[in-house]
Design brief:
Length: about 250
Protein backbone atom coordinates (compact mmCIF):
# COMPACT_ATOMS: atom_id res chain seq x y z
CA UNK A 1 0.00 0.00 0.00
CA UNK A 2 1.47 3.35 -1.05
CA UNK A 3 1.89 6.08 1.56
CA UNK A 4 -0.65 8.98 1.56
CA UNK A 5 2.23 11.30 0.58
CA UNK A 6 2.33 9.71 -2.86
CA UNK A 7 -1.34 8.89 -3.25
CA UNK A 8 -1.97 11.91 -5.45
CA UNK A 9 1.01 11.27 -7.69
CA UNK A 10 0.01 10.23 -11.16
CA UNK A 11 2.67 7.56 -11.49
CA UNK A 12 4.99 5.94 -8.95
CA UNK A 13 7.98 4.36 -10.67
CA UNK A 14 8.23 0.59 -10.23
CA UNK A 15 12.02 0.72 -10.41
CA UNK A 16 14.20 3.51 -9.03
CA UNK A 17 17.99 3.40 -9.40
CA UNK A 18 20.34 5.68 -7.48
CA UNK A 19 23.92 6.86 -7.93
CA UNK A 20 24.66 7.73 -4.31
CA UNK A 21 27.15 10.51 -5.01
CA UNK A 22 28.65 13.16 -2.75
CA UNK A 23 29.72 11.29 0.40
CA UNK A 24 33.28 12.61 0.10
CA UNK A 25 32.19 16.23 -0.38
CA UNK A 26 29.68 15.93 2.46
CA UNK A 27 32.54 14.88 4.77
CA UNK A 28 34.94 17.51 3.41
CA UNK A 29 32.39 20.26 4.07
CA UNK A 30 32.40 19.19 7.73
CA UNK A 31 36.16 18.77 8.07
CA UNK A 32 35.73 14.99 8.39
CA UNK A 33 37.60 12.14 6.67
CA UNK A 34 35.99 10.75 3.49
CA UNK A 35 35.09 7.47 5.21
CA UNK A 36 32.90 9.43 7.67
CA UNK A 37 30.95 10.53 4.59
CA UNK A 38 30.56 6.91 3.46
CA UNK A 39 29.35 5.96 6.94
CA UNK A 40 26.80 8.81 6.87
CA UNK A 41 25.79 7.63 3.38
CA UNK A 42 25.26 4.13 4.72
CA UNK A 43 22.99 5.41 7.51
CA UNK A 44 21.05 7.33 4.89
CA UNK A 45 20.64 4.26 2.72
CA UNK A 46 18.71 2.56 5.51
CA UNK A 47 16.31 5.55 5.68
CA UNK A 48 15.88 5.66 1.89
CA UNK A 49 15.10 1.92 1.76
CA UNK A 50 12.35 2.46 4.34
CA UNK A 51 10.99 5.41 2.35
CA UNK A 52 10.98 3.36 -0.87
CA UNK A 53 8.91 0.68 0.87
CA UNK A 54 6.49 3.34 2.15
CA UNK A 55 6.15 4.89 -1.29
CA UNK A 56 5.37 1.53 -2.91
CA UNK A 57 8.50 1.30 -5.05
CA UNK A 58 9.11 -2.34 -6.03
CA UNK A 59 12.72 -2.30 -7.21
CA UNK A 60 15.60 -0.19 -5.91
CA UNK A 61 19.02 -0.45 -7.54
CA UNK A 62 21.94 1.27 -5.80
CA UNK A 63 25.41 1.93 -7.17
CA UNK A 64 27.57 0.90 -4.21
CA UNK A 65 30.96 0.30 -5.84
CA UNK A 66 31.93 0.53 -9.48
CA UNK A 67 34.54 -1.40 -11.46
CA UNK A 68 36.43 1.91 -11.57
CA UNK A 69 36.27 2.55 -7.79
CA UNK A 70 39.16 0.07 -7.25
CA UNK A 71 41.35 2.94 -8.47
CA UNK A 72 40.65 4.98 -5.30
CA UNK A 73 43.32 5.19 -2.57
CA UNK A 74 43.83 1.80 -0.91
CA UNK A 75 42.73 3.15 2.47
CA UNK A 76 39.36 4.27 1.06
CA UNK A 77 38.81 0.99 -0.83
CA UNK A 78 39.58 -1.07 2.29
CA UNK A 79 37.41 1.25 4.39
CA UNK A 80 34.49 0.83 1.99
CA UNK A 81 34.90 -2.99 2.00
CA UNK A 82 34.76 -2.93 5.79
CA UNK A 83 31.63 -0.74 5.72
CA UNK A 84 29.89 -3.12 3.27
CA UNK A 85 30.82 -6.18 5.33
CA UNK A 86 29.65 -4.53 8.56
CA UNK A 87 26.36 -3.57 6.91
CA UNK A 88 25.64 -7.20 6.08
CA UNK A 89 26.51 -8.27 9.64
CA UNK A 90 24.43 -5.51 11.22
CA UNK A 91 21.50 -4.95 8.90
CA UNK A 92 20.68 -8.30 7.25
CA UNK A 93 18.08 -9.39 9.80
CA UNK A 94 16.38 -5.98 9.77
CA UNK A 95 16.26 -5.94 5.97
CA UNK A 96 14.84 -9.46 5.98
CA UNK A 97 12.18 -8.49 8.55
CA UNK A 98 11.22 -5.56 6.32
CA UNK A 99 10.63 -7.96 3.42
CA UNK A 100 13.63 -6.81 1.38
CA UNK A 101 15.09 -9.25 -1.13
CA UNK A 102 18.76 -8.57 -1.73
CA UNK A 103 20.28 -9.18 -5.12
CA UNK A 104 23.72 -8.45 -6.45
CA UNK A 105 24.72 -7.12 -9.86
CA UNK A 106 28.36 -7.06 -10.89
CA UNK A 107 31.17 -9.44 -10.06
CA UNK A 108 32.10 -10.95 -6.71
CA UNK A 109 35.47 -12.28 -7.83
CA UNK A 110 37.71 -9.64 -6.19
CA UNK A 111 36.20 -10.01 -2.73
CA UNK A 112 37.84 -11.90 0.11
CA UNK A 113 36.38 -15.43 0.46
CA UNK A 114 34.76 -14.47 3.82
CA UNK A 115 33.10 -11.36 2.40
CA UNK A 116 31.92 -13.27 -0.68
CA UNK A 117 30.40 -15.94 1.60
CA UNK A 118 28.55 -13.24 3.55
CA UNK A 119 27.13 -11.75 0.36
CA UNK A 120 26.02 -15.15 -0.95
CA UNK A 121 24.41 -15.92 2.40
CA UNK A 122 22.52 -12.59 2.37
CA UNK A 123 21.19 -13.29 -1.15
CA UNK A 124 20.09 -16.80 -0.17
CA UNK A 125 18.60 -15.69 3.17
CA UNK A 126 16.37 -13.01 1.65
CA UNK A 127 15.52 -14.65 -1.68
CA UNK A 128 11.82 -15.27 -0.93
CA UNK A 129 11.11 -11.67 0.15
CA UNK A 130 8.96 -9.63 -2.21
CA UNK A 131 8.23 -6.25 -0.60
CA UNK A 132 11.26 -4.52 -2.14
CA UNK A 133 13.85 -5.99 -4.49
CA UNK A 134 17.16 -4.30 -3.61
CA UNK A 135 19.76 -4.71 -6.36
CA UNK A 136 23.18 -3.84 -5.04
CA UNK A 137 25.53 -2.85 -7.86
CA UNK A 138 28.86 -3.82 -6.38
CA UNK A 139 32.03 -4.17 -8.45
CA UNK A 140 29.64 -3.24 -11.24
CA UNK A 141 30.21 -1.45 -14.51
CA UNK A 142 27.76 -1.18 -17.39
CA UNK A 143 30.41 -1.87 -20.02
CA UNK A 144 31.75 -4.82 -18.07
CA UNK A 145 28.19 -6.16 -17.84
CA UNK A 146 27.72 -5.95 -21.61
CA UNK A 147 31.12 -7.56 -22.31
CA UNK A 148 30.20 -10.35 -19.91
CA UNK A 149 26.84 -10.83 -21.68
CA UNK A 150 28.53 -11.07 -25.10
CA UNK A 151 31.07 -13.58 -23.79
CA UNK A 152 28.30 -15.74 -22.33
CA UNK A 153 26.22 -15.59 -25.53
CA UNK A 154 29.22 -16.74 -27.58
CA UNK A 155 30.03 -19.47 -25.05
CA UNK A 156 26.42 -20.67 -25.29
CA UNK A 157 26.80 -20.91 -29.08
CA UNK A 158 24.15 -18.34 -29.99
CA UNK A 159 23.97 -17.51 -33.70
CA UNK A 160 24.01 -13.81 -34.77
CA UNK A 161 20.36 -13.87 -35.88
CA UNK A 162 19.31 -15.24 -32.48
CA UNK A 163 20.66 -12.15 -30.69
CA UNK A 164 17.82 -9.73 -29.98
CA UNK A 165 17.16 -7.05 -27.37
CA UNK A 166 15.19 -9.60 -25.31
CA UNK A 167 18.03 -12.14 -25.48
CA UNK A 168 20.61 -9.53 -24.42
CA UNK A 169 18.34 -8.59 -21.50
CA UNK A 170 18.42 -12.20 -20.35
CA UNK A 171 22.23 -12.23 -20.34
CA UNK A 172 22.66 -9.06 -18.27
CA UNK A 173 23.22 -9.15 -14.50
CA UNK A 174 19.74 -7.59 -14.21
CA UNK A 175 17.97 -10.47 -16.03
CA UNK A 176 14.32 -10.56 -15.01
CA UNK A 177 14.33 -7.05 -13.54
CA UNK A 178 12.36 -4.35 -15.40
CA UNK A 179 14.38 -1.40 -16.71
CA UNK A 180 14.73 1.49 -14.25
CA UNK A 181 11.97 4.06 -14.69
CA UNK A 182 13.85 6.74 -12.79
CA UNK A 183 17.58 7.14 -12.20
CA UNK A 184 18.62 9.61 -9.50
CA UNK A 185 22.14 10.95 -9.14
CA UNK A 186 22.71 13.03 -6.05
CA UNK A 187 25.28 15.80 -5.54
CA UNK A 188 24.56 17.81 -8.69
CA UNK A 189 26.94 15.87 -10.97
CA UNK A 190 25.39 15.38 -14.40
CA UNK A 191 26.90 12.08 -15.57
CA UNK A 192 25.84 8.46 -15.95
CA UNK A 193 29.24 7.01 -14.92
CA UNK A 194 28.84 3.56 -16.50
CA UNK A 195 25.66 2.80 -14.52
CA UNK A 196 22.92 0.69 -16.17
CA UNK A 197 23.93 1.97 -19.61
CA UNK A 198 21.81 -0.62 -21.44
CA UNK A 199 18.88 -0.72 -19.05
CA UNK A 200 18.71 3.08 -18.72
CA UNK A 201 18.09 3.67 -22.43
CA UNK A 202 14.67 5.21 -21.71
CA UNK A 203 14.96 6.01 -18.02
CA UNK A 204 14.03 9.43 -16.71
CA UNK A 205 16.98 11.12 -14.96
CA UNK A 206 16.83 13.35 -11.90
CA UNK A 207 19.76 15.29 -10.41
CA UNK A 208 18.99 16.73 -6.97
CA UNK A 209 21.59 19.27 -5.78
CA UNK A 210 22.19 17.55 -2.42
CA UNK A 211 24.92 15.19 -1.29
CA UNK A 212 23.84 11.59 -0.76
CA UNK A 213 23.86 11.70 3.09
CA UNK A 214 21.33 14.58 2.86
CA UNK A 215 19.02 12.91 0.34
CA UNK A 216 16.14 12.22 2.71
CA UNK A 217 12.54 11.04 2.41
CA UNK A 218 11.34 14.51 1.40
CA UNK A 219 14.00 14.63 -1.33
CA UNK A 220 12.77 11.25 -2.58
CA UNK A 221 9.19 12.49 -2.55
CA UNK A 222 10.24 15.51 -4.64
CA UNK A 223 11.95 13.15 -7.11
CA UNK A 224 8.78 11.05 -7.38
CA UNK A 225 6.67 14.17 -7.84
CA UNK A 226 8.93 15.39 -10.63
CA UNK A 227 8.83 11.93 -12.23
CA UNK A 228 5.03 11.87 -12.10
CA UNK A 229 4.96 14.99 -14.33
CA UNK A 230 7.32 13.60 -16.94
CA UNK A 231 5.88 12.35 -20.20
CA UNK A 232 7.61 9.17 -21.31
CA UNK A 233 7.41 8.88 -25.08
CA UNK A 234 10.01 6.17 -25.85
CA UNK A 235 10.84 7.90 -29.14
CA UNK A 236 7.18 8.22 -30.15
CA UNK A 237 4.98 11.31 -30.14
CA UNK A 238 2.77 12.44 -27.31
CA UNK A 239 -0.81 11.05 -27.49
CA UNK A 240 -2.03 14.67 -27.20
CA UNK A 241 -0.07 15.95 -30.17
CA UNK A 242 -1.00 12.78 -32.03
CA UNK A 243 -4.73 13.52 -31.55
CA UNK A 244 -4.47 17.16 -32.53
CA UNK A 245 -2.51 16.37 -35.69
CA UNK A 246 -5.10 13.94 -37.09
C1 LIG B 1 30.09 8.16 -3.96
O1 LIG B 1 30.51 9.25 -3.19
C2 LIG B 1 29.86 7.00 -3.13
C3 LIG B 1 30.52 5.80 -3.24
C4 LIG B 1 31.56 5.50 -4.21
C5 LIG B 1 30.23 4.71 -2.33
C6 LIG B 1 28.77 4.52 -2.07
C7 LIG B 1 28.60 3.80 -0.86
C8 LIG B 1 27.75 4.12 0.12
C9 LIG B 1 26.80 5.21 0.11
C10 LIG B 1 27.74 3.28 1.28
C11 LIG B 1 26.43 2.56 1.42
C12 LIG B 1 26.28 1.45 0.52
C13 LIG B 1 26.08 0.18 0.91
C14 LIG B 1 25.77 -0.87 -0.08
C15 LIG B 1 26.17 -0.20 2.31
P1 LIG B 1 31.93 9.86 -3.51
O2 LIG B 1 32.93 9.20 -2.62
O3 LIG B 1 32.23 9.70 -4.96
O4 LIG B 1 31.72 11.35 -3.14
P2 LIG B 1 32.46 12.61 -3.77
O5 LIG B 1 32.11 12.63 -5.24
O6 LIG B 1 31.90 13.76 -3.03
O7 LIG B 1 33.94 12.41 -3.53
Amino acid sequence: MASPEVENLQAVPAHVAIIMDGNGRWALARGLPRLAGHRAGTENLRRVIEACIEFGIQYLTIYAFSTENWGRPEEEVQGLMKIFEDVIDRELQELHDQGVQMRHIGRLDRLSPEFRQKVLHALEYTKHNTRLILNVAFNYGGRDEIVNAIQCMIRDGLQPEEITVEVVNRYLFTAGVPDPDLIIRTSGELRGSNFLIWQGAYSEWYFPPVYWPDFDKEQLRLALEEYSHRERRYGRVSPVSNTTST
